[in-house]
Amino acid sequence: MHVPVQPAPAALDPLFTALDTEIFTDRHLANLAAGTLAAVRVPGFLSTPHCQASLAALDRLPTTGYDPRRVPTRIARFGPALNDYRSPDGRLDAARYWPASESAREAWHRAGFRPDPVAVALGRIGTAWGVAVAPATIGGRPVFGGTLREINAGALVHYDDINREFPTGVFDQDIVTQLAFNLWVAVPDAGGATTVWRHRWAPADEHHRLTYGYQTTVVEHCQRVRLIPRLGDPLLFNPANFHAVEPNPGGCRIAFAFFLGLTTTGQLITWS
Ligand SMILES: [Fe+2]
Prior knowledge:
- The chain has helices at about 25-35, 50-60, 95-110, 115-130, 160-165; strands at about 20, 40, 75-80, 135, 135-140, 140, 145-150, 155-160, 175-185, 195-200, 210, 215, 225, 235, 240-245, 255-265, 270.
- By secondary structure, it is α+β, with helices and mostly antiparallel strands.
């Protein structure tokens, strides 16, 4: 007798979920660092008036960058990311980075964020961890943290891992795990979702390489969570998991962003 073979139900990791919570806790941070939890959000973290105040302060920042499809509309992009100052051999181009870092720091203070959403976020994460979050340092000098990025055209599937980007190390501190933080202060009506896949880089992934990221085939069969940006919501996730951003057809998607690193001595440090 012919017995039809039922397809096996998809095996899912029950721990790989996106959690909405009232406050960040040390357990959330530990689970994200361990890679079991997919993402944590805190709805209403920044009130709508505070989001609006942040957007108003943005106008006082020297943001750079233009969207080639919408020239001459300006796209908000503020603050140096270490990755943009990386030499081909995986070292920091210090001669370019430090002046950009210093002028960003000065511009940030001049803009007068009240409250400063990055400071608020770092304060709450430090409270959750039990120790204040400190900036990552290079030769004792603190790096810049707290970039602002407007992403309307989406971002390719990619991962972020400072230990691979700078294989000989870049900070005074050694990092065992990296987390990514985004706080939306402007969101589109549709699109702009962030997807996080339960997949970490493997050498064979390079067969799917596409400029700075990967073709979607690289995560085709992987479990995922999809997070729609909501005004004032922060998102914390482990960026070693492959992630991507969908384009938004209209509106603006603007977020404050920084990374957190868990060091070998159990400290949390931050950079962008
Ligand atoms: Fe990323």
